[in-house]
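Quick one, T. Sequence first:
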Amino acid sequence: MLNLYYSETCPYCHKVMDYFNEHGIAYNPKEVLDRKNYNELMELGKIAQVPFLVDTDNGKYMYESDAIIDYVKDLKK
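Structure tokens:
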């Protein structure tokens, strides 16, 4: 499962979500304004930065919109 921590006001988050939506990639969006999601982000990533992707199937954690998109492209190969 792909969990994407995001902020509604973050253009880089929208870049990733737009890519996911355009390519039919299933993901679980987690808005960090929700305190529970923010606490998860800080526990997993240690940095208050979004977008933050957690691939629970592969144990992968990553920041940076371009890196996230490239990672997901490679998953589809």
